[in-house]
Amino acid sequence: MHPKYHDVLDPAYLAYALDVERNSAGPTGDLALLRQQYQETSHRQRPGDYADLHIDDSTVTSRDGRPIAVRAYAAHQKASQSLTMYVHGGGWVLGNLDSHDDICADICRQTESTVLAIDYRLAPEHPFPAALHDCIDVLNALTVSTSDRLAKLQPDSLVLAGDSAGANLVTAACLSGAWPASDVFKGLVLFYPGLSANDALPAFQEHREAPLLPQPFLDFFVHAYLHGGTIEPTVLTSPLLATDLSAIPACHIAAAEHDPLRDDAIVFTEKLQAQGIACSLDVLASLGHGFLRVRRSSEPARTAFEDACKAMMALHTGQFSTTYGSGGAP
């Protein structure tokens, strides 16, 4: 992290980012160690109390007969027909059901909807389109299939959400053509989404030494997902390339000013609004990539998370407006 960030970042976020840097093997290190460190860092942020929730692990059968692990979160005594499917971040390389367990639990608490997390395959062992196919297969089990349906989770309302690479995956799923009409999903909620491989956008240049996602890590993740760089970007790897966004539902995006992915969120919002798709954008001035991790210790991160949850609730009930968020758009 460049020292210039020390004076502009929220103190709680800065402390977290410095802790991650001290305990990271880096993108050129051992991948197994990097994944272990990611899990350990994630677990240090967990509250550890889930007594108020019912949590159920199960599987969905993939298109090629594999089990895809999923985890459902529901509030005790509060049956909900609203479902939020959450796809975790980690550069398509890191993370699993446990790494974002606390985030999913808090979304369940805040929105009073059932939350379903999925354990998609990771790159580089499974490059594009493996992770996307897993997301689509789980969504098919929720919205299309009659033989492999998640019987307890037949939703009246389905919102898709994700952070970073997970935000990329849920957006790409909407654009995949499997659901050509935007009304299949009630909405989309994206946290600091990675939606392009376009390093010409200003934020990529401004934040090459940003906290948590400096240029070497960003290059490593994209290279791993795109099969060593042998796969050319398409709308399914880089949704900003899409010209027709009619399959995208109403959307709320929470982004961070000090993030190389900031402009992905801004440009995507502009494209959605130009096509008449409702989209609210919250750009947090004192935060960087991965700020959900400090939503319990950082006031701006907490507010951004709560505003996003309010947007989720409004999307579920059809009462969404474009006024969620206090960070503002440039």
The CATH class name reads Alpha Beta
Low-confidence stretches: none
Helix content: 25-40%
Q: What would you say the CATH architecture is? A: 3-Layer(aba) Sandwich
Oligomer: single chain
Spatial sequence of strands, sheet with the most strands: 1-2-4-3-5-6-7-8
Radius of gyration, whole Å: 18 Å
The fraction of residues assigned to DSSP E strands is: 15-25%
Kindly report the CATH topology. Answer: Rossmann fold
Main sheet overview: 8 strands, mixed
Gap from first CA to last CA = 24 Å
The counted number of beta strands is 8
Structural topology:
Blueprint: H1 11-22, H2 31-43, E1 53-61, E2 67-75, E3 82-87, H3 101-111, E4 114-118, H4 130-143, E5 157-163, H5 165-175, E6 187-191, H6 202-206, H7 215-225, E7 251-258, H8 262-274, E8 279-288, H9 299-317
Helix pairs in contact: 4-5
Overview features:
330 residues; alpha/beta; Rossmann fold; 8-stranded mixed β-sheet; globular
Concise summary:
The protein is built from nine helices and eight strands.
What does this protein structure show overall?
The chain is of the alpha/beta class. The chain has one domain: Alpha/Beta hydrolase fold, catalytic domain (Rossmann fold), CATH 3.40.50. It has helices at residues 11-22, 31-43, 101-111, 130-143, 165-175, 202-206, 215-225, 262-274, 299-317; strands spanning 53-61, 67-75, 82-87, 114-118, 157-163, 187-191, 251-258, 279-288. It has an eight-stranded mixed sheet with strand order 1-2-4-3-5-6-7-8, with helices on both faces. The longest helix has 19 residues, at 299-317. The chain is globular. It starts with 10 loop residues before the first helix and ends in a 13-residue tail after the last helix. The mean pLDDT is 91.
